[in-house]
Design the sequence.
């Protein structure tokens, strides 16, 4: 997808293209974008976070999820990686499912896509 589009687009453009690609994968059951989840403190909602893409895979009748956080920056910061970790921990604790998180950076430099599982 990135090799077709090239560098320099906004995060939302890459998100829509990645959504199209993900929906074409055989084992993908669902793809949700801009998923909003609550942040709780002592049982009370105190805010929200938004997952860029949430993909549900089904393999051998077992479901698992991948949270995808997209970035379009020159270099991923520790705070961006921590954001992915936090989303993963929160989603696992609220949804009780097998979940992983991938932070993908598509910077303006051609052929320099970065993908990190947190």
Sequence:
């Amino acid at each position: 997808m990135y090799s077709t589009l090239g560098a320099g687009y906004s995060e939302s453009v890459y998100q829509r293209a990645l959504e199209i690609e993900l929906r074409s994968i055989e084992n993908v059951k669902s793809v949700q974008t801009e998923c909003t989840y609550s942040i709780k403190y002592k049982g009370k909602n105190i805010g929200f976070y938004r997952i860029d893409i949430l993909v549900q895979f089904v393999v051998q009748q077992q479901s698992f999820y991948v949270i995808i956080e997209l970035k379009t920056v020159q270099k991923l910061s520790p705070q961006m990686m921590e954001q992915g970790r936090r989303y993963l921990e929160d989603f696992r604790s609220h949804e009780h499912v097998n979940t992983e998180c991938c932070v993908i950076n598509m910077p303006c430099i051609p052929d320099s896509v970065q993908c990190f599982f947190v």
